[in-house]
Write a structure and sequence with these properties.
Blueprint: H1 2-8, E1 25-29, H2 36-42, E2 48-53, H3 55-71, E3 75-80, H4 86-96, E4 102-107, H5 109-121, E5 126-130, E6 142-147, E7 150-155, E8 161-165, H6 166-171, H7 174-185, H8 187-201, H9 207-222, H10 232-252, H11 261-272, H12 279-294, H13 298-307, H14 314-317, H15 321-330, H16 349-358
Parallel strand pairs: 1-8, 2-3, 2-4, 4-5, 5-8
Antiparallel strand pairs: 6-7
Length: about 350
């Protein structure tokens, strides 16, 4: 029997180990903001809370969150910020250390990323309160921070809870919702890139995380024609997809399930263009081209983006055709250790131009 086990490999030492950090509560729905106090109590939070927001999101939801928490017996302070840069994070950390027991990021990517990173640095929990469904970082353990003029992804921790009020999000600029759709649809190529890296570079790969991410992307593609401005049902669909995308990243322990060649293209544009479009919009256009390079159904991607009124061309991004081509050429140099369909060397300019023309991006 022992020899049989040995031949089957059954007695080999099992040494796999995995740690996943996920939100404990996800509260999504109409007027969900009204339950923020109960959510904090359910999570057994106590002490002084810091609310991170910007000038706009303070008016939209920040002041209301503060009032509700004050009525529930919490002592809160509001901190207005304008950018998600390292200096801002350092300033928040210096002021909050020893004084703050929990944080709330109220807004879009900037307040949530700063709250996520700052709370991680002083080891206190934070709650994500998105006022827009513009990106999939609302529930992830990664934060996008500007350091020395470059936007980088840094490790943080997942929010203890996500409170997403669909009535607030539906009233916000529809462009942000469409950008969130485009960002998540980009998972379709991110997963293909990840699988390619597994096959060619033996990179660690999670089938569970990949399947969840892919399912999330195609749920939006399938329902893209029902995502419209001002509808809470649309906000509901997109928020659920963004949370699922964040969970896939938490399961994987990296941003791999939701960030591949399409994100490299977006980051390349950020470094080239004087006034970049929204991150999700750029990722959406990148996804069209990357799906074409993968030999997949890029027309399906393009149609879904058109359905949600997200850009699909250089003109839609308000950039030049040359900037699109140059971004494709440079994209492989962005995070070269992350292998994608682009490889890790500069793309041939004629091939880049041909791909952009074939897909109608230029």
């Amino acid at each position: 029997m022992a020899s049989e086990k040995a031949s089957n490999g059954l007695d080999k030492e099992f040494n796999k180990f995995k740690s996943m950090e996920l939100p404990r509560l996800v509260v999504v729905g109409s007027d969900a903001l009204d339950d923020i106090g109960d959510t904090c109590k359910d999570l057994k939070l106590s002490g002084r809370g810091l609310i991170i927001c910007d000038a706009t999101t303070r008016k939209v939801a920040g002041d209301k969150v503060s009032e509700i928490l004050d009525e529930c017996g919490y002592d809160t302070e509001i901190r207005d910020i304008s950018s998600a840069c390292q200096d801002t994070v350092d300033s928040v950390v210096d002021d909050a250390r020893g004084e703050i027991q929990f944080m709330l990021g109220v807004g879009g990517g900037v307040p949530i990323d700063v709250a996520k990173c700052s709370s991680y640095n002083i080891d206190v929990p934070f709650i994500s309160v998105p006022t827009a469904a513009s990106h999939d970082g609302i529930a992830s353990a990664r934060a996008s921070i500007n350091r020395n003029g470059n936007k980088i992804s840094v490790g943080a921790h997942s929010p203890l809870a996500v409170v997403a009020d669909t009535s607030v999000i539906a009233r916000g600029p529809y462009r942000l919702l469409a950008a969130g759709c485009a960002d998540t649809i980009g998972n379709a190529t991110a997963v293909k890139d990840w699988l390619l890296a597994k096959k060619l570079r033996n990179e660690p790969y999670s089938h569970y995380a990949a399947n969840l991410s892919k399912m999330t992307a195609y749920s939006l593609i399938k329902n893209s024609d029902s995502i419209k401005p001002g509808l809470e049902e649309s906000a509901w669909l997109v928020i659920k997809a963004l949370v699922s995308s964040s969970v896939a990243m938490s399961i994987a322990g990296s941003s791999r399930p939701a960030s591949g060649s399409e994100h490299k293209f977006s980051h390349a544009l950020d470094s080239l263009v004087e006034k970049p479009a929204l991150h999700g919009e750029q990722c959406g256009v990148g996804t069209i081209i990357m799906m074409y390079l993968h030999g997949g159904d890029w027309k399906e991607i393009k149609k879904a983006l058109q359905n949600v009124n997200a850009p699909t061309t250089a003109r839609g991004l308000d950039i030049t055709e040359e900037e699109v081509v140059e971004a494709l050429v440079r994209a492989p140099e962005i995070r070269p250790e992350r292998y994608t369909i682009l490889g890790n060397r500069r793309m041939d300019r004629r091939a880049a131009e041909a791909a952009a023309i074939e897909t109608g991006v230029i």
